[in-house]
Amino acid sequence: NFFEPFFDKLVQGTYVKIAIDDNVDGERVYRFCQVSHVCNVERSYPFAGEKTKKGVMLVYGKSKRTSTLAALSNHRLQEREFDLWRLYLESLKMTVPTKEMAIKQYNAIKEMPSRHKYTDEQVTVMVNRKRASGKSQVSLGVEIVRLERDVAAAKTANNFDKSIELEARLAQMQHANEQRLAVKTEDVVRINEINKRNREINMKRDMDASASNRAQMDNMSAAQKLQYVRASASRRMYLSKDKIDVNLAEGKLVKLPDGRIMTVNKLVEVEALPDDIIPDNKKNSKEEDVLVKMERKRKAQELAVVETRVNSELKKRPVVSDEVKKTRRGISMKDYFNRVKERTAAEDGA
């Protein structure tokens, strides 16, 4: 974009960051600034393969400074740098740009190349600058526009030899452009095929997972099915049919015109559980549920491990018998204070 004729207008109002300190705690310090306008600096410097005096006027709060284009950073803006800039503007009671303003600026920059109408002089200058810099190849579109202009000028001047030569070069450029577009089309087709294959693989995995879940549920007991359904439900509640009828009668649930049953706040949908999922309490009143047995067994194992660990710790501790304890003689308070007095007197005498 540096070689574009609308570069000065393109960068106006954009935001950049520039280094203000070489090294602080091992890191470079950057400042987030806004580009006020394009200006000229005192000395020329190399940039994009050519010597230029073009620079930018940067605004940070109420202060301004000029900078070369080469001094601007191409690194991503860090959140800390943005917060410092925002807090600085707020301390000066200046308006911080909103998200809508940033989107509007971005769209304007994005649409500027397509809206700009190139003149013959602009195309010639841009092509010559790119060729002289050797930084990058001239785009085929720009070269085709320039050749079409030169062909028209040669025909107007009745220079048919020149026009034939230019038309041959124009045909080569158009052919190269068609080949480039064909390559892009092939890449798009290849990417679409890869995406289609990935979608088929994902669909097959989903179907296999669904079949596996159904097979797993077939081997579950009624209580396990009930627990699985309730755990996998999202914004949906499952109750037995008799409980739904009771809650509807009490006004805790409401029935919508489309037949759905929801809670009073209409945030959670309620569905009736299938009959094969509801456990038969009368039939299994004397039998413990499988999940309850597994939980009790797990707790018993954990308790056994804890008891074993405590017993082993107690065995490691030394045990002092009562006879040994009786033979031990402690120090009385009187003896303790006498020892303190003797030690203090000895220290004073020394």
Automatic annotation (TrEMBL):
<protein>
    <recommendedName>
        <fullName>Plus3 domain-containing protein</fullName>
    </recommendedName>
</protein>
<dbReference type="Pfam" id="PF03126">
    <property type="entry name" value="Plus-3"/>
</dbReference>
<dbReference type="GO" id="GO:0016593">
    <property type="term" value="C:Cdc73/Paf1 complex"/>
</dbReference>
<dbReference type="GO" id="GO:1990269">
    <property type="term" value="F:RNA polymerase II C-terminal domain phosphoserine binding"/>
</dbReference>
<keyword id="KW-0804">Transcription</keyword>
<keyword id="KW-0539">Nucleus</keyword>
<dbReference type="InterPro" id="IPR004343">
    <property type="entry name" value="Plus-3_dom"/>
</dbReference>
<keyword id="KW-0805">Transcription regulation</keyword>
<dbReference type="InterPro" id="IPR036128">
    <property type="entry name" value="Plus3-like_sf"/>
</dbReference>
<dbReference type="GO" id="GO:0003677">
    <property type="term" value="F:DNA binding"/>
</dbReference>
<feature type="domain" description="Plus3">
    <location>
        <begin position="1"/>
        <end position="114"/>
    </location>
</feature>
